[in-house]
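step: validate -> pass
step: tokenize input -> pass
step: predict -> running
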Amino acid sequence: MSPRSALKAKPEPVQSEGSSRPIALLQWYDRHRRRLPWRAMPGETSDPYRVWLSEIMLQQTTVKAVGPYFEKFVARWPDVTALGRASQDDVLRMWAGLGYYSRARNLHACAVAVTRDHGGVFPDTEEGLRALPGIGPYTAAAIAAIAFDRHTMPVDGNIERVVSRLFAVEDELPQAKPLIQQLAATLLANSRAGDSAQALMDLGASICTPKKPACSLCPFNEDCTARARATQETFPRKAPKKSGTLRRGAAFVVTRGDELLVRSRPEKGLLGGMTEVPGSDWLAGQDEATAKQQGPELKGLSRWQRKVGVVTHVFTHFPLELVVYTAKAEARTRAPEGMRWVPIATLAGEALPNVMRKVIAHALG
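step: predict -> pass
step: emit ->
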């Protein structure tokens, strides 16, 4: 029976031939669940703050990368009220290096809203959660299921992969998302919704991996359509990715003794509110001479020296190449308006995005 016809025939979440799947999934999870710093232990109640914080951090980021950041955040801000009282600049500094910085700004805005409007208590419904800054359909479902055991199934990349293979979903992503969402709901147990969701996430992360899945260890190994056809690695079907147009620009690294000239990016837009060295516009087809003309103007500045090579970085929607120029300023040279001098020794504490860390390392290395 095809996935579409199965859905039409049996719209109930867990019925008929699929009734054993949620049970098998939870039995597997009880034996093999991952230990994660934000995950409640068996028998413990999940902390909505830790669930929310981890879900925001895990968007487009790996568990391995998130772990140290999560630990730093909860050590400094142990609950949502503490985070809501922090400054956005402090949150951005702690987030620096994790990428996708709009998440950090939304994280802070959400903490402020929960503290101000909800007395420091997260809403316990998907609808209430979605009304908060930075919480979309997936994140709302994940928090509702994991933190409040609401009967809903969030679908992340791991779950998409498991479900698309189990049912051999031929539609390409992202068009296949609604169908995968419906099929994923058939794997929800009648209770322990949060565990059902986390079990599928763990299954995708540890067994049903993108390449060389360990099918013999999977609780669905006798029931997987893609495995029966030996086509596991071809799912999920994906439309070809469109790579953005290459943009070019220049970055200007100015030192004054043991200090570096920096500025903050505008609050809105790419890398909003983050710290950067002065730079040109990032444009497709920009020539080097035009970019160089956009360097900062300081009295007594030495001549610009172009560093050999370029710094490359890939954002979600475009790749970037930056040429890097260095110059030295005289002692007591004042920073131009909107810029400031910071000690090079304290750069680790600045909210520098990865592309700027690359630029500074290239310039000072």
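step: describe -> The chain has 15 helices and seven strands.
step: cleanup -> pass
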